[in-house]
Fold this sequence. Notes:
Blueprint: E1 8-13, E2 18-25, E3 28-33, H1 43-54, E4 63-70, E5 73-79
Antiparallel strand pairs: 1-2, 1-5, 2-3, 4-5
Amino acid sequence: xxxxxxxxxxxxxxxxxxxxxxxxxxxxxxxxxxxxxxxxxxxxxxxxxxxxxxxxxxxxxxxxxxxxxxxxxxxxxxxxxx
Length: 82
């Protein structure tokens, strides 16, 4: 993979941990855990931590606008600047 573009990000809290998924296309999805984010951390902390994880594997989007999709999950679509 060269120069992947993030199409969407999903952040969710399970009974055991915070997890995330990143989609570049319907066929190319990566997922992982946020091991340093406590289960009781506020969503803003988990969002900050997932953004830090993204910086290690993808070109960083200028903005991630999050919307809550259920009690323990949030979705974001990256917005790039001009």
